[in-house]
Design goal:
The protein is an all-alpha fold and 93 residues long. It is built from 5 helices and no strands.
Length: 93
C-alpha cells in the first residue's frame, strides 16, 4: 500500500475515533470493519486511535508483542482501504 493512501486511511481512523468524521460513507465503512474485529483488536483500535496511547503502552496493556501490534494495525488499515476502494472513497493502487 502506498504511503499516501495509508496516511489517508490513518487520518480517517483518527477522525472516526474522535467522532469528527463527517462523511457518512467513511463512517459506515470504518464501522463495518470494526464490527469484524476480535475484542483485543478492537481494544487496540480504541487505545491507538481514540486514546492515542503509545505503541509501548498498548503492547504492555494488551500483553502482545510489537510484531502483533504492527500486524493488527496493518490488517485494520488494509481492510478499511479495501472497503474504501469498494465504495470509491479512494482509488485503488
Amino acid at each position: 500500500m502506498r504511503k499516501g493512501i495509508r496516511h489517508e486511511i490513518e487520518a480517517r481512523l483518527y477522525k472516526y475515533a474522535a467522532s469528527q468524521e463527517e462523511n457518512k460513507t467513511w463512517q459506515e465503512t470504518i464501522a463495518a470493519e470494526l464490527k469484524k474485529l476480535q475484542p483485543q483488536q478492537l481494544q487496540l483500535f480504541e487505545l491507538r486511535y481514540k486514546e492515542k496511547k503509545s505503541e509501548r503502552e498498548i503492547c504492555r496493556k494488551l500483553h502482545i508483542e510489537r510484531s502483533t501490534y504492527y500486524s493488527w494495525i496493518s490488517d485494520i488499515v488494509q481492510d478499511v482501504a479495501i472497503l474504501a476502494a469498494y465504495h470509491k472513497l479512494i482509488k485503488p493502487e
